[in-house]
Structures are given as structure tokens and as C-alpha cells.
Design goal:
The chain is an alpha+beta fold and 116 residues long. The chain has one domain: Alpha-Beta Plaits, CATH 3.30.70.120. Helix content is 39%, strand content 30%. It contains three helices and four strands, in the order H-E-H-E-E-H-E. The chain has a four-stranded antiparallel beta sheet. The longest helix is centred in the first third of the chain and has 20 residues.
Length: 116
């Protein structure tokens, strides 16, 4: 019986230690046209650094969406942004107001960031 309690206590400590190393985060994935003026992209990048602490961007191979109705877009930039909280309203608002995008492709999901 004591061995079982010891094993359960040890398992609980290990679970808590793992949680202590991981911080809650929200991952944002957003796609913008690569044809935007470089100044607008630079300003968007600065916005992401200021509000989320950073970003990763890569060129997309293109895509299409029935809900957007715009047809195939061959050149896009895909941003992956991790932040301590959900910034989808802030990012979406920036894209509409500052970049003039009428429709936005933005996904979010909860994540854990390793804190060492």
C-alpha cells in the first residue's frame, strides 16, 4: 500500500514538473498576399514583434478557398505566431484596417511553449 502511494506521489510530482516547464500559448496561423507592398509587410512584421514578441514567415505555394471566392492565389506569405494569449482579434483588425484586406484566413489553436 505504501509503495502504491509512493508511486502515485512520484507520478504526480513528475506531471507537475512537466507542467511547470510548459507555458500556455496560442498559436496563430495567418496567410497574407505576397504582393502587398514591402512597407506594409515591414509594418505588419513590426506589429507582430510588438504584440506577440515575434513571428515565423514562409512563402506559401498558393491556394484557393471556396468561401473567399477570389480564385487561386499563387503567391502568399504564411505567418506562424505564438503568443501568451489569443491575438486573433488584434491581428485580424490590423489586416483589415492597415493592409486593407477584406477577407482574412486566420487559424488559432492552444499550445504549450517549453520554458527552460
Amino acid at each position: 500500500m505504501k509503495l502504491t502511494r509512493l508511486a502515485l506521489s512520484l507520478a504526480l510530482v513528475l506531471l507537475m514538473a512537466g507542467s511547470a516547464l510548459a507555458a500556455k500559448a496560442t498559436v496563430h496561423f495567418v496567410v497574407v498576399p505576397a504582393a502587398l507592398p514591402s512597407e506594409q509587410l515591414h509594418d505588419f512584421n513590426a506589429f507582430l514583434v510588438k504584440n506577440a514578441g515575434g513571428y515565423t514567415v514562409s512563402r506559401s505555394t498558393g491556394g484557393d478557398s471556396a468561401s473567399f471566392g477570389a480564385g487561386y492565389a499563387p503567391e502568399n506569405l504564411s505567418y506562424t505566431v505564438s503568443a501568451p494569449k489569443n491575438l486573433s482579434r488584434e491581428i485580424g483588425g490590423y489586416l483589415k484596417k492597415e493592409l486593407g484586406l477584406k477577407k482574412i484566413f486566420l487559424l488559432t489553436w492552444p499550445a504549450e511553449r517549453l520554458e527552460e
